[in-house]
Amino acid sequence: MITKNSNASGDCVIELKDAHVSFGDVVAVDKLSFQVNPGERVAILGQTGAGKSTIMNMLVGALAATSGTVRVVGLDPVADWHALRGKIAVAFQDARLLPWRTAHANVEMGLQFLGVDRRKRRDIAAEWLERVGLGHALTRYPHQLSGGMRQRVSLARALSVDPGVVLLDEAFSALDEATSVQLRGDFVRLAQTEKFTALIVTHSIEEAFEIADRVIVLGRPAKVMATYDTAEYDFSEPGSFETLRKTVSEMMRA
Ligand SMILES: Nc1ncnc2c1ncn2[C@@H]1O[C@H](COP(=O)(O)OP(=O)(O)OP(=O)(O)O)[C@@H](O)[C@H]1O
Questions:
Q1: Residues 223 and 171 in one domain
Q2: Which value does ipTM take for this structure?
Q3: What is the rounded radius of gyration, in angstroms, for the C-alpha atoms of the chain?
Q4: Atom of ligand 1 nearest to the CA of 53
Q5: 26 ligand 1 Cβ < 6 A
Q6: Residue 132 belongs to what domain range?
Q7: pLDDT tens sequence across 56-102
Q8: Each residue of 18-43: pLDDT tens digit?
Q9: Hey, which of 23, 58, 218 would you mutate to test ligand 1's pocket, going by the most ligand atoms within 8 Å of its Cβ?
Q10: Domain check: are 83 and 184 in the same one?
Q11: Contact, 87 vs 35, CB < 8 A?
Q12: Cross-sheet strand order for the sheet of 14-23
């Protein structure tokens, strides 16, 4: 059976094989290979300049790899961008809401682009705002919302199209810690109920280990330094996360 998380061949949802990107003499991504399996949440963790945005740009079809291959649900994001519409959704660090549209109308946007009829998209958008805890704020404009609320609208907009793949590009980085922790928890719960596959790009070690099933640590330029299966770690032991954080941040600086 083909579900929203699988592709025709039933293989992994995201696959990079020796993906290499250089801008003149600057290597941004160094023959990077990794896979994300259906239903998995994978974090790509790297410090500033590690090539995270470049990876994201390749996944959304905004940039072609200099060499190697990039596939999302078996498709080439550059050549097959049209076929990927509605299958992939992105939430960014800044919520990117249209200031002249209400929260409700902002969430409707993705559905509008996909041609969903007016009544249906109004219902779906309202339902999603309810699910992210903003059922009371449908008619508010972005400037009437807090940063956390704006990011919730952005998440609702991303998820409302029922995408198989969700990309988070530092989506919680600009929020205060308490709001960020709350949103990360909500995101994990939504990923579990909606069963989408997620790739989370972040520089935050806490965020990566909190959200993801698997954490891929990048060096600079982007290459895999280590991969952690987060289920194998028990951070209830005092100091255990601090020890891991030290190891991981050294790798990220390498
Ligand atoms: N269009 C470009 N032209 C030239 N160099 C670029 C271009 N885009 C990115 N780079 C370089 O590629 C490297 C990786 O950049 P990238 O923006 O992908 O890193 P990043 O991990 O997203 O960083 P940050 O966390 O600071 O956003 C950097 O050395 C950057 O200067």
A1: yes
A2: 0.95
A3: 18
A4: 22
A5: yes
A6: 94-162
A7: 999 999 999 999 999 999 999 999 999 999 999 999 888 899 999 99
A8: 999 999 999 999 999 999 999 999 99
A9: 23
A10: yes
A11: no
A12: 26-36, 14-23, 67-72
